[in-house]
Amino acid sequence: xxxxxxxxxxxxxxxxxxxxxxxxxxxxxxxxxxxxxxxxxxxxxxxxxxxxxxxxxxxxxxxxxxxxxxxxxxxxxxxxxxxxxxxxxxxxxxxxxxxxxxxxxxxxxxxxxxxxxxxxxxxxxxxxxxxxxxxxxxxxxxxxxxxxxxxxxxxxxxxxxxxxxxxxxxxxxxxxxxxxxxxxxxxxxxxxxxxxxxxxxxxxxxxxxxxxxxxxxxxxxxxxxxxxxxxxxxxxxxxxxxxxxxxxxxxxxxxxx
Length: 257
Known about the structure:
CATH class of the largest domain: Alpha Beta
Helix content: 10-25%
Shape: globular
CATH superfamily of the largest domain: Bira Bifunctional Protein, Domain 2
Largest sheet: 7 strands, mixed
Distance between the termini: 47 Å
CATH topology of the largest domain: BirA Bifunctional Protein, domain 2
Strand content: 25-35%
Oligomer: single chain
Strand order of the largest sheet: 1-2-3-7-6-5-4
Order of helices and strands: EHEEHEEEEHHHEEEEE
Low-confidence stretches: none
Structural class: alpha+beta
Radius of gyration: 18 Å
Number of strands: 12
């Protein structure tokens, strides 16, 4: 499925020893120019990186991948922008799964990558809309590669911890770009049914009973039954199914008895 020749993602690579945020740099670049599609902004020391809903991203300098990709998915209606989440998450997941073939690698809604019950990668997508279409997208990726311990994120893991091997960050970045591009081209070709099917196939806790916490801190037991077209998570609890956005629900460990 994967072509080892990069078509466009990563052909233009801007590397920096240090940046506050690769996404911020990419957004500023877009504000004053039109970089080549597939341009990658990368640094091994991101000092102010963040994830979904403003969470920080812990990364030891020189150990992990932190980068952003500039894309122009103007073929995609703004109403369908969650398809980008699916494509990008599946791209990162497929790379991690190829590195750790013996492990269960899943997508924790909406787009974190988990090995078992430990987080190995996070994604932050920022879209600029123009009318009913997407003008540009900045995809930010943080992937734990060679980090051996995590102080602020005890449920985190890395490729090193999972395999016992160190990875070349340069090779990891280029190969990861191939995986992301493959799934992005799948979306561009209109193969959305394949994306939908694969996303559910690899969705963390899909159709399994689990515990969740609402935004008001109440805890309930339910089962993930799917994802709505707008990206909201569908959870069945009792006789009812409710749709939640990213700020309204999160998975939690079972309450202690």
